[in-house]
Amino acid sequence: MDEEAEHFRKITMKVLTMQLNSISIMDIVAFGGAAAGIVMAVSQLAAGNIDFAGCIIIILLSADFFIPMRQLGSFFHIAMNGMAASDKIFHLLDLEEPQEKTKTVPNHNCDIACSHVGFRYNEEREILKDINVQFPQGSFTAIVGESGCGKSTLAKTIVGLNREYDGKLEMDHLKPQMVFQDPFSSLNPARKIGWILEEPLKLKGIKDKKQRKELVNQMLTEIGLDPSFANRYARELSGGQRQRISIGLSLMRGEKLIIADEPVSALDVTVQSQILRLLLKLHDEKNLTYMFISHDLNVVHHMCHRVIVMYLGRIVEMADVDELYDHPCHPYTRMLFDSILTDEEKETTDSVTVNEILPETVDGDGGCPFYGRCRYAGENCLREVPTLTDIGTPGHPHLVRCERIAYGEKYTAAD
Fold this sequence. Notes:
About 45% of the residues lie in helices and about 15% in strands. The chain has twelve helices and twelve strands. The protein has helices at about 1-45, 50-95, 150-160, 195-205, 210-220, 240-250, 270-285, 295-305, 320-325, 330-340, 345, 405, and strands at about 100-105, 110-120, 125-135, 140-145, 165-170, 175-180, 255-260, 290-295, 305-310, 315-320, 390, 400. It has an eight-stranded mixed beta sheet, with helices on both faces. The protein has a four-stranded mixed beta sheet with strand order 1-5-2-3, covered by helices on one side.
């Protein structure tokens, strides 16, 4: 559909260009003919062949004959352009819609299941690669990694903003809701908060205005704001209050799956703790499923049940939060944790030294994407992309994408 629409746009521009060119020719003919009639009438009057009344009549006839030709030509081009456009529109309407990739998950203990999900903005820029992960009901899962690793792209793909993805994305009759990093950009500045919060209820089919207002006031109370905030605009609120509204907006449809993309990174430290406590409170009260994107590993440790570590579009490690923080296995994960250790902790911890420059290519030669920054890299790491290996215990999986882990080797300070 998108390709056909682009093709239609190009054809329309060509038709408009041709129309403008032809109108220019019609202008020359129309005004040139009228001018020629005027010149002829004046010259004949000067020669004494006609009187003044005859001259005026010839001038009026010239204008009446030639100038309407221009308008007639314009009508013709408009009609032809309309016919061509209508044919294209009917052709677009007859096209089959692409098959919906999002399906219902047969396992009702899981809200989302990503199976071999990939996404690229163009042929040369692949952002997500072979993402396989499930988000169980009521779970609080964090996704961490450096900027550019694909965290936000995965979130946008799940929420439906990136539709041209590969693989399968299955949901249990859910419509994920997103809480963005900048709450002000996601709130309509021209509308009051009450109107903004009512919109999801209208889409849900609640027609009773009184009922909608009661639900809005109830939600404002749940997110720690007074019902009077319904009469305010977003510009009249602080950053923390806007983020509370953004969280409340994501809950208005009654959905259980919330994707929070760095929801507190733009807020002051004291406000951050208030928003985080609110997220935990709502999670426990409503049994929500959270996908929490963050760069703050201390917050992740305190808030989440499970952690997914991403690097250059791939999951490199995934485990329960305590397991991962106690036993980080992938060199990249250990590098992330090393960045939050104090100098005293670093002296007693087997830290990892890596090249801090992020490579520009992703799996360009088919090897481990972390090869260029890993101090433990060997020849085997260049042969193929490592697979996720489960080194955990039954019921507590610990997945690591590392060649040495796959062969049972361990990293030591002597390395």
